[in-house]
TrEMBL record:
This protein's UniProt keywords: Ribonucleoprotein, Ribosomal protein
Cross-referenced HAMAP family: Ribosomal_bL28
GO cellular component: ribonucleoprotein complex; ribosome
Record protein name field: Large ribosomal subunit protein bL28
InterPro entries to which the protein is assigned, alphabetical: Ribosomal_bL28 (IPR026569), Ribosomal_bL28/bL31-like_sf (IPR034704), Ribosomal_bL28_bact-type (IPR001383), Ribosomal_bL28_sf (IPR037147)
């Protein structure tokens, strides 16, 4: 499963781990993805979303109906 937020589109970032001796090794910064279930009144059903912690805050602020409408407008399945 990909580490991608369905609300914001957040994807992993890449960089280096730097040790005490300053040796750099590749690493991956994954977004904090959570599996959440929301009741969507406009659809009359529950939807399961893979959202980041910041995406959950966006849903709280804008409302689940608005966010789901944006996801459906992009052509993504919910």
């Amino acid at each position: 499963m990909s580490a991608r937020c369905q609300v914001l589109g957040t994807v992993p970032g890449f960089g280096h781990s730097i040790s005490h001796s300053h040796v750099r090794t590749k690493r991956r910064f994954d977004p904090n993805i959570q599996r959440k279930r929301y009741w969507v009144p406009s659809l009359g059903r529950y939807v399961k979303l893979r959202v980041s912690a910041r995406g959950i805050k966006t849903i709280d602020r804008a409302g689940i109906d608005v966010v789901v409408a944006r996801i459906l407008a992009r052509g993504e399945r919910v």
